[in-house]
## 1
Amino acid sequence: MSGLDPDMADLLARAVPVTVQPPVRVFGATPVIGEATWAALHEARAWVVRSRT
């Protein structure tokens, strides 16, 4: 998930069970529009590459 405000990110991090697979990653909002989404996309692509090997 990307673009969440800090309070929502904290709430979600505490609410999601640790056993969720693959792990859920939260990318908090930044002052730059789209920055968190790009960071999430970059991480997702890296995860795909890692999972193929």
Note: The first strand starts at residue 2 and ends at 4.
## 2
Amino acid sequence: MDDQQAWKATYLMRGDKHMNRVEKATECPKCGSNELGKGMHSGYASMAPAERFGLGSKIIYIICTHCGFIVEGYVEQPKRFKKR
């Protein structure tokens, strides 16, 4: 499975209709491995709000430790992105 197919598999698995109840990732959609790890971007690689200057948040990733595919990513502090 190439990266495009893996993205489609992830989208179909979690698509828009399921975004209110995303399930915890347990398997890599690219290679099928269930060996997942956690990593993060922080410091200068943090995510910042687009509309205003302010503190950002670390980006947390769930990564397949077999093939390296990023299964999911999210910000650690989503409240920093709410409109004021």
Note: The beta strands are 36-41, 59-64, 70-75.
## 3
Amino acid sequence: MENVAPLPCGHAWPVLSAPPHVRICLELISDLTGRESEVFRLLGMGKDNREISRELGVAERTTRAHVTGVMTKLGLDSRLQVGIVAASVLCWCGT
């Protein structure tokens, strides 16, 4: 039986059925906190910090901290990279 990974879209998918570029990140994505997963999903939708802050009901400074946490956990250097990875994952899971 394949390992199943929870995704920020709320679905759980078999890891081995994921495309290679998504599969690489699934384990790292599963290490995100609930709030970081929400931020990851919103970045994948192209939202900026102000929009994310408004949607989550938190200060923009808090959003920046979550974005930094996501970047660190995923080993990425920019929010653009996070957005690209998140958009790929969200497209794959049909969100």
Note: The chain has a mean pLDDT of 80.
